[in-house]
Amino acid sequence: MPKTTFYYFNAKALGEPARLLLAYGNEQFEDRRVTMEEWPAVKQSMPFGQMPVLEIDGKKYGQSMAIARYLGHKHGLAGDSLEEALEIDQNADLLTDLRNEAISAHYESDEELKAKKHKENLKKVYPESLKKLDEIIKKNNGHLAAGKLTWADFVFACSFDYLKTMLQMPDLEQQYPSFKQLIDSVYASPSVKVYSEKSPKSEFGY
Amino acid sequence: MPKTTFYYFNAKALGEPARLLLAYGNEQFEDRRVTMEEWPAVKQSMPFGQMPVLEIDGKKYGQSMAIARYLGHKHGLAGDSLEEALEIDQNADLLTDLRNEAISAHYESDEELKAKKHKENLKKVYPESLKKLDEIIKKNNGHLAAGKLTWADFVFACSFDYLKTMLQMPDLEQQYPSFKQLIDSVYASPSVKVYSEKSPKSEFGY
């Protein structure tokens, strides 16, 4: 059996989708949670100096979406045809685009500029993207694509707290009940439920 | 045979990888180049109000990277295993991250801020990413991943002029001969060569 290690901070954020996809696939893996103290030294050994990283038999792979897609294909969560896989990728990218806009505003160091960006996004970017996601989920039986559970649902559900923090929308799932329905469908999987209940609590709150 | 239409502006930028992947696969497709005058009306019919869009038998798909990956899988350019596909996705995302940093600076409307962002990127972001890409290409026999021609090479080669414009580095391939080698390897494919020689000239210069 290959040795698998997953490296990330003790946070859900961009790492939890891979952890829960590994749990869904009943894969044995070392859940390596790197502390902020360890990070400068660990960073040197990471392919692009970033995490999350999935290590399979000594080879390290980076990029959170690439990892989630890989695990999705491995565990039958990537559609039944090339066209379904494309639809999943497309809708996952819509989510990523939204998150990246929010991240870009959140990590702006100039406070005045940060407030300006966030205000612009609240007006022009977030409502349209959230409405689109809501429509998509309603059209896909409570899922992000292909009318069924896919790896993109794991990305949505497991990084939802991070998204809410970045968007500064703590009651997002109350505004969009379809989002709550999607999240519940991911955590309803027995092995996912077991893993998430026994896993360490995020230090960051998301 | 399915009817395939590819919608984009008369530019290479984010659209040309898909056009040349379609050409590589010898697919018949309508190369629909939307003018700026037509765009407001056409925009309404696009899944996320954006292009590029690939339409297959009446169903439209957006997101440039998702489309390129789909065509890569369809035409044998997506690796021979799930792990190779992961490596291709990972390295394509490294390129996308670099491009997105540059795009974010390029389209900043505040001129002062734009200059500041570009200067910061020139110091902190671009050199490291470009060095990493150079190392990767050298390690992969002149390709972006998996040691052979993949769809990620098409993304690199066909949007290279756009990348240079965003980075404001007109002599990028002189600085990195490995980039030139990769680009040449994509255009060396006979059907790609035929298509690119007869296709309309981009209105935007990239």
Automatic annotation (TrEMBL), chains A, B:
PROSITE patterns documented for this protein: GST_CTER (PS50405), GST_NTER (PS50404)
Protein keywords: Transferase
Substrates-to-products reaction catalysed: RX + glutathione = an S-substituted glutathione + a halide anion + H(+)
Known EC number: 2.5.1.18
CDD domains attached to this UniProt entry: GST_C_Sigma_like (cd03192), GST_N_Sigma_like (cd03039)
Keyword Transferase (UniProt): yes
The protein's enzyme class: transferase
Domain GST N-terminal positions: 2-79
Highest taxon above the source species: Eukaryota
Matches recorded under Gene3D superfamilies: 1.20.1050.10, Glutaredoxin
PANTHER family referenced in this protein's UniProt entry, alphabetically: GLUTATHIONE S-TRANSFERASE, HEMATOPOIETIC PROSTAGLANDIN D SYNTHASE
Family that this chain belongs to: Belongs to the GST superfamily. Sigma family.
Protein name: glutathione transferase
High-level lineage: Eukaryota, Metazoa, Ecdysozoa, Arthropoda, Hexapoda
Name of the gene encoding the protein in the UniProt record: LOC112054651
